[in-house]
Known about the structure:
This protein has 269 residues and is an all-beta fold. It has strands at 3-4, 7-8, 12-16, 21-25, 36-40, 43-47, 58-62, 67-69, 83-87, 90-94, 106-109, 114-117, 129-133, 136-140, 154-157, 162-165, 177-181, 184-188, 201-205, 210-214, 222-228, 231-238, 247-251, 256-259.
Amino acid sequence: GGWTRDDPSCLVEQFCPDYNEWRTSARMVNKRGNVSVGTLDGFIYTVGGEDNIRCYSSVEYNPDTDSWSTDVAPLSSPRSGVCLVAMDQYLYAIGGHDGITAINTVEYDPKMNTWTKQAAMLTRRTKAVAAVLDGYLYVIGGNDGDTVLNSPVERYNPVDGTWSICAHMLSPRENAGCTVYLGHIYVAGGKDELNLELCGAERFDPETMRWTPVKRMRSKRQMSLVVFNGALLAVGGSDGTTNLKTIEAYSHETNHFGSMKSKHPGGRV
C-alpha cells in the first residue's frame, strides 16, 4: 500500500535476500494510503488507511498461500494514520483519525477475532509511531488532528493498563519511521510542524529515559524504518516531491546512514 503520486496503492512487495531483489506479492483487497502494517503469529495484518473517499478497517495476509483474507473483525471505526504493534500475543491499534477526530487505542485478540477498547492515551494522536521495548508500549510523535505534536512520548504498561509520560523527542514529527534496534528505539524522518520532510534521526535509551541524536539520513523522507538481517534500514518513502526507491542502512558502529545498492521497485510510502 501507500501513495503513488496522488493515488493510493494496493501493491505489495517482498524482498528476497537470496537473490537481492524485490518481488510483487498478491495485492491487497483495497487500495489504501496511510495504512498501518503489523505481524503476529506468522501473519501480516493491515489496519486502517484511506483512499481519499473512505477510511478502511482490517485485513490479514497469509504468506504461505500468498493471499489476503477479509475475515478479520473490523475496528470499532475505520481510521487512517494508525500505529499497529504486536505485544504479548495481541495486536494494538493505537490512535488514528476517523475523518472527524483523532482517536485512541484498541486491542485485537486473534484467537477470539475481536477488538476491545483499552485505556485511552493521555493525548489523542494520528500519524504517530509506536514500538514495544522491555514489555512496554511506547507511542511517539504524530499530530492531534490539526498540528504536529511536541508533546512527550507516552508509555503503556499492559500489566496495570496505565499510560505514563516519558521524555520529549528532540524534534516533533509525524509519519516518521520507527523500530527497536539493539535495545533502543530509533525514530527517523517524517514531517515537522512546518510540514517539511525531515532527514534527522534520534534514539531513545530506556535506561536513561533520554533521546540522543543520530547521524542524519542522506535523504529527507517519510518512510518505513525496519530491522532486516541485523541491519537497520530506511526504506523508500517520499521527500515531499518524489517517491523514493532508495534504501539507506544505518551502522551503529560508525553512527552513519549509507546508501544500499538494492532499490525497491515501487517508490511508495
